[in-house]
Amino acid sequence: MLSDVPVSLKYQAGLGLIEVLISVLVLAVGLLGFAGLQTQAIRMNYDAFQRTRASLLAEELFDRMRANREVAMTSENYFHDFGDALPQINKSCVIDDSETDPLGNTCTTAELAKWDLRNWLQRLQNNSPGASAEVVRTDGVYLVTIRMNELAEGELAANNSTTESELTVKQRVTFQFETVL
């Protein structure tokens, strides 16, 4: 029966199968490369998210300082170091349109500065567990340094863990922002 097959086809028996296997191998390598590229894109997207969040938080604090400029420029009520505890304030400084608290508790501008800083630091820690900040002023220029945790693969900041010890921290990232009030 093989004698009826032309000579050129006799030598190609099984060659189609080898071509298919090589094609599948090339496709598999291409898909693995695409998966690696997608993983890298997700990682970079998360890094950009952290930078944006840090930038928005820093700008929020700068706006609070601008609203209370006299205290921000003449006192150290907005100063904070990485290891410091949250500033203590015994009343709420939420002010309505008449600039008085509905409960009759009014805050001085110095108390408002401490309240602003405490509120801002709590938002920072709620948005990024384990984050810390330093706020300093030099020659009228405020510098805000924010340290955030870069989490290990697959663990996002939206994790329900709220303490640094519960997170798998890959490394600490630092962002610095400065402004003149």
From TrEMBL:
The chain crosses the membrane at residues 12-37. It holds the Pfam family Tt1218-like. It comes from the Bacteria. Coiled coil: none annotated. Keywords: Membrane, Transmembrane, Transmembrane helix. Residues 37-117 form the Type IV pilin Tt1218-like domain. NCBIfam families: type_IV_pilV. This is Type IV pilin Tt1218-like domain-containing protein. It comes from Saccharospirillum salsuginis. The lineage of its organism: Bacteria, Pseudomonadati, Pseudomonadota, Gammaproteobacteria, Oceanospirillales.
